[in-house]
Amino acid sequence: MKSMTLTSYGADAPFVEAELPRPLVTPGHVVLRVKATSVNTIDTMIKGAGKDLPLSPDLPAVLGMDFAGVIEEVGEGVTGFAVGDEVYGCAGGLADLQGALAEFMRADARLIAHKPKTLSMREAAALPLVGITAWEGLQRAGVSADQKVLVQGGAGGVGHLAVQLARHLGADVSATGTGDDQLSVIGGYGAWPIDFMDEKIEDYVANHTHGKGFDAVFDTVGGANLTNSFAATALNGHVVTTVALSEIDLSPAHFNGLSLHIVFMLLPMLHDVNREVHGDILGKLAKLVDAGTVKPLLDDATFTLAEVGDAYARLQSGKALGKVVIEV
């Protein structure tokens, strides 16, 4: 089968077209024909850092975590799926799990779900990693109806889904971004857009929460921005972050009694723990998509498998609005 493979790691390392054996089906798994895969920030981090990250696969490596495709073989013990089913999931591209930058992929059946019927393969491939992350973050923070929620980076991959899911839960949602395009996206989802370049934290906390702070802040920016999230959160509130790879002073969180939740959705893949939870979330997410409650945001640029290097560059350029997707 054709694949785009890394034979070295590094920011400038090229993807190389290679013929690899088609994966064999094993118990509890399916083999699927990949139709589309999306690029996530963690993919670019693995490519750039290589084995400095404990989750990076050995070389030669086939990356690509998210996918949408069609089942070609079903392994022993798999129920609920059949040959020909259209599915989506996040099931490879790290450790010893082959990724989706190939014509075929073996996936643990616990990590996949039937693709939303109303989405194309390209659209469905944009959802799994960011959708699961948004879902888990809001669940960890206990977001519910009538709460005031702030999403930092509301037009980003995780952020745009966190906004929509929080709205579905009945929360009063505000979200940060900058520029007309991002603010328009946020407003289009029914959230209050905040231009972080123009509005100070104390101003938007005063305007949107009467100075009390948000019940929950979902920070998809991380790093130094966590300090901003602490400052925007109500007493005894919740802060969720997807980017905690930094040293930071937790004193503001301490003196306000905040709960800090770090979401690292790759743990089930890395440690084979509670993988069925991801399949369950994807099944529920598909129903919300088909009901018109949630819709993925895709960047306008399109890429083929041979153009994977350009797709990675597009995401890293900061110019993409929405998920970058590669069609296989």
UniProtKB/TrEMBL annotation:
GO molecular function per UniProt: alcohol dehydrogenase (NAD+) activity
CDD domains: MDR6 (cd08272)
Annotated coiled-coil segments of the chain: none
Keywords, sorted A to Z: Oxidoreductase
UniProt EC number: 1.1.1.1
Enzyme class, broadest EC rank: oxidoreductase
Tagged with keyword Oxidoreductase: yes
Gene3D superfamilies found in the cross-reference section: Medium-chain alcohol dehydrogenases, catalytic domain, NAD(P)-binding Rossmann-like Domain
Segments forming domain Enoyl reductase (ER): 10-326
UniProt name for this protein: Alcohol dehydrogenase
UniProt organism field: Sulfitobacter dubius
Gene name, Swiss-Prot/TrEMBL: adhT_2
